[in-house]
Each structure stands twice: as C-alpha cells, then as structure tokens.
Design brief:
With 550 residues, the protein is of the alpha/beta class. The chain folds into two domains: 258 residues, 3-Layer(aba) Sandwich (Glutaconate Coenzyme A-transferase), CATH 3.40.1080; 253 residues, 3-Layer(aba) Sandwich (Glutaconate Coenzyme A-transferase), CATH 3.40.1080. Helices cover 21% and strands 25% of the residues.
C-alpha cells in the first residue's frame, strides 16, 4: 500500500490553527526555546485576538516552551498587558517550569488561570503512558515534596487547589507509596521538527535535542481519538531524503505541517543555528573557544564540586554526572579550563552527553556533545540511578537536609527536572552561595575569602518554603549528600547537617553559624582546599591523571 502523500498537509499557520476548538487541551513542545514552535504559538494568539477563538485552552508542556520575551513568555506578556483579568484564552496550564516567564508567574499569582506544575520526567512519562492508552503515570518522584497531594499537589494558586484539574493521588504498591499522576488528555499537539518530506515524515536533524514530540503526537491519537497534530518545520524536503531511522514522527500521524520563518525557529535563546549544537559537527574540546570563567564565589563553588566529582573517577578513569542549572552548569566549563573534561562526562537533562553545556536561557543544549539521546530516556537513566552523581542548585536547605530549589513567595518557578534527578542520583552535591542578597565577598587568590558585607537573606533555614527534595528515604538507601557553598561544606548524617569544611579566612561563629537558623553538628571540620581560590587554574590535571593510572 503506498504511503499517503503530504501535499495537503502543508498549510499556512492560520489554516491549521483555526481548526482548534474552544476548550481544547493543547500540548506544546519545547525545552526553553529549543524545540519550541514559536511561530505556531504567536499565530494561535493572533488568531484569538482577531476572532475571539480558540479560547478556554488548557496548555500542557513537559518543560517550558520559550525563553524571556519569546514563546509562552511572549504570549503571557500580551495576555497580561492587553487583557488582564478579562483574558479568556487560557483556563489552565500544566508545565514543569515557569521560571523564564515573570508574566506567567504574575498571572498564576493573580489566579487568572489554573496553574499546575509537575516534574519534567513525570510529564514526559505521562505523555508516553496516556499515548499508550493508560490512565496516567505511577512514580515515586514527588513523594514528600510540594507535589505530594498531602501538601500542595503541584498546585501553584488557589484556583488550581480548588478545581484540581491535574492532580496526583497517593497509592500503595508492595507496601511502598507512589504518586499516580492524572491530567486531562491532550487533544491538540503543537510541536516542532526541522524537516518534513513529501509523506509528512518529520526529522529533528537541526535541533539541539530530542524532546518527547513523538509522545505528544501519540497522546492526542491514542485509542482511536481524533486529535490533531500540527508541526512547525523549517525545510520541506523530497521523499527519501530523510533516513528512516532519523524520522522522529511518522507522516501518517501528522495532520498539518507549517513552514516557519527562520527567525521563529532558533536552536536556543541566543543561537539561531550552530551545527555543533545539533551534533551535525563535533569539534574536539581543545578546539572550542572556551572563555575562562571569572573568579567569583560562584566559580569557587563550581571548583569545589569538580574536585568531588573527580574523586569518583578514580576507579574507572571517568565519572558520569548530571549538572543542573545555576552554579552546577559552570562545572563543565571549569573542567575544560583544568583539562579534565574527559574524566567528567557531563549530562544535561534534555539529552546531551559531554561537550560544553550552555547556561542561562540557553540551558538544555551543548556545544559538540558526544551523544544526544531522547529526553525521556535521559530521565529514565537519572531515575534509575545510572549515573555516578548529580550537582544541583538550591535556594534553601533546612536542618533535615530538605532542599528548596526554586520556590519562594512571589516566585513560582516550578520544579523542572530537579525532583527526578535528585530521586535517583547515588550521590548528590547541592551547590549554591551560602547567603543571598547584596554582598561584597572578596577572594584573596590562593588564600581564601574575605567577607566585607554578607548577604542579608539566610538560606540555611529551620523549614524550607517548599520541599522539592526530601532525603527521607535516601539515607536508608545509602545515598550520599553534600551541601557545597563558597565558605562551608556540609554533609547529611542521620538526618542532620554536619559541618565538614570551612573556607580559609572565614570565622565559623560569625560567618557561618550566626548566618543559619539552626545549629549544625560542628565538632570536626577541616579547611577547604586553597587551590579553589586561585586566580589561575588549580593545576589538578596531573594529580588526577596519576591517581587514575594507579
């Protein structure tokens, strides 16, 4: 039987989007701006402004499709400024991360729509599960955190807590607690690819990652449902020009294909197109132009994390780690400076292995990675503990080692991939500055720190604002926890934090204990390695290569 040809599937954006009905559940691809169908998002809102339809939409995404000023943030700014409390476009939203959009956060705070958040891995697995005809997703991720329905259920505002449209339930399997995640089934998928051939087959060859676009398409088509799949692409190509193994979405389950202008189809927030990002060219790391990371307290923390990770490389000559957003994302750059990148194989939750992961709104892609695997498989690796360690950022840590990574009053950012990675990693190195707020902390190269003015916001607190990681069962499993800052390192021991290292030049009573809301165990601690305060490289390459040779 010949495959259906796709001439009729190539349409203008308005032609496809005008078929979306009021009240639809719309799933949208995108990890920050990577894989975000920006042209379709803008077209959908402009159609609504012109005609009043479609409206009352419930939007789902496994991460956040956009970056500051683009994607969902572009949409939210216009909704808030042009319609405010009278907006009828969005009735609800379920995404993993709101942090790139202060406009969405403002709308959520003001109850302008139901706002929910689940971890990335849960959303990705949920899309695959409902695409397989299952009623939802069962997971240990989220137990004991603010996603747990006994706490907030992942609801970010009162409207969500009242309506509970997307809500997990606690269930027991073999005497263990799990969360069963349920949400409305998607009816429309707005997703993105690079190329589409004459039969409608979609390739991701120019993209910087492999998001769950196939699972999104499956989620609107499962069990005979007549959902609609609309794909934004850059290039129409001839049949046979896409290798079968490189087809991300088979043509028969694609309904409409929209060609986007290049300025609405960037690889990341600041990169329009770079073949090193999509893996079409792999440049040896020694040929990459890597700018030295300035010597700041953030670099001090990243260096200390790197030293810990290098210890894990002693047995097999390398270690496989996850690096989260914020300070942990600097570790790969510091490793490149020190010429130890081959010993620390960094992975990013979106799928890249190796290379140089990018920071800030470009987070999610890497320059010249060694491999790029599907996001959903990357998270299975994390949850299964098939890495050696993870370094993740923190906003708050409490006396029991609970961590709040991204939630504060007026700052409804969501969990991202944090709960998924922290649930499975065998060793956890939480990395952050000791205090927050305006500060003047000077690094005396090769000597240590001099705290001229400390931040006035305490981060080591009696109780965190929202729990995103609970170590309640991790210690029973023998997992290790370090909390690394520029002036002190703590270890979790018997559900209490123990001070194990102090930076040279720091007064323990004045600069550490007085700046905590609880008293850690502080009976035996040593001085932090002075090399991490060096103006030049730490000079560790030979030391660790010799250790590995042993």
């Amino acid at each position: 039987m010949p495959l259906p040809r796709a001439e009729s599937k190539f349409v203008e954006a308005w032609e496809a989007l005008s078929r979306i009905r009021d009240g639809s559940v719309v799933v949208i691809s995108g990890f920050n701006l990577s894989l975000t169908p920006e042209y379709l998002i803008q077209g959908l809102y402009r159609l609504y402004r012109a005609s009043g339809h479609p409206k009352d939409l419930f939007i789902i995404s496994d991460t956040f499709p956009g970056s500051p000023g683009r994607g969902l943030d572009w949409l939210a700014e216009r909704l808030y400024s042009e319609e405010g409390e009278h907006q009828e476009f969005i009735r609800g939203m379920l995404v993993a991360y709101y942090g790139w959009s202060r406009w969405l956060q403002k709308m959520a705070e003001e109850n302008l729509f139901e706002a929910y958040t689940w971890p990335i891995c849960v959303l990705a697995h949920w899309l695959r599960d409902v695409g397989a005809g299952k009623p939802g997703t069962l997971s240990r991720v989220g137990i004991g955190t603010f996603i747990d329905p006994r706490l907030d259920g992942g609801a970010l505002n009162d409207l969500a807590k009242e309506r509970k449209t997307a809500w997990p339930e606690v269930v027991s399997v073999e005497d263990k607690e799990y969360l069963f995640y349920k949400a409305p089934l998607p009816e429309v998928a707005l997703i993105r690819g690079s190329r589409a051939d004459d039969h409608g087959n979609i390739s991701l060859c120019e993209e910087g990652l492999i998001g769950p676009v196939l699972q999104m398409a499956q989620s609107v088509k499962s069990r005979g449902r007549k959902g609609m799949v609309i794909v934004q692409i850059l290039y129409p190509v001839r049949s046979g020009s896409i290798e079968p193994k490189k087809v991300a979405i088979p043509g028969p389950i694609v309904d409409y294909i929209v060609r986007a202008p290049e300025d609405k189809h960037w690889q990341s927030a600041t990169i329009k197109y770079d073949p090193r990002v999509s893996g079409q060219i792999s440049v040896p790391i020694e040929y990459l132009e890597i700018k030295p990371v300035p010597l700041t307290t953030r670099k001090v923390v990243a260096r200390r994390v790197l030293l810990e990770m290098l210890k894990l490389a002693e047995d097999k000559g390398y270690t496989v780690v996850n690096l989260g957003v914020g300070i942990p994302s600097l570790v790969s750059s510091v490793a490149a400076e020190e010429d130890v990148s081959e010993m620390v194989v960094s992975t990013v939750e979106s799928g890249p292995w190796g290379g140089i992961p990018l920071h800030g709104p470009d987070f999610g892609v890497a320059i010249s990675p060694k491999a790029i695997i599907p996001l959903i498989d990357q998270f299975s690796i994390y949850e299964g503990g098939i890495i050696d360690a993870a370094s993740l950022g923190f906003l708050q840590v409490d006396k029991h080692g609970n961590v709040n990574a991204s939630m504060l009053p007026g700052r409804l950012m969501g969990p991202g991939g944090f709960p998924c990675i922290s649930t499975g990693a065998p060793k956890l190195f939480f990395a952050g500055l000791f205090t927050a707020g305006k500060q003047d902390i000077r690094i005396e190269p090769g000597k240590g720190l001099r705290i001229v003015k400390d931040g006035d916001i305490i981060k080591f607190v009696d109780h965190v604002y929202k729990i995103l990681y609970c170590p309640c069962s991790a210690e029973e499993e023998g997992r290790e926890h370090l909390y690394i800052t520029e002036r002190a390192v703590f270890r979790l021991s018997q559900s209490r934090l123990e001070l194990v290292e102090v930076a040279p030049g720091v007064d323990v009573e004045k600069d550490i204990l007085a700046k905590m809301e609880f008293e850690p165990v502080a009976q035996k601690y040593v001085e932090m390695d002075k090399r991490i305060f060096s103006q030049h490289t730490m000079g560790i390459v030979e030391e660790f290569k010799n250790i590995i040779k042993k």
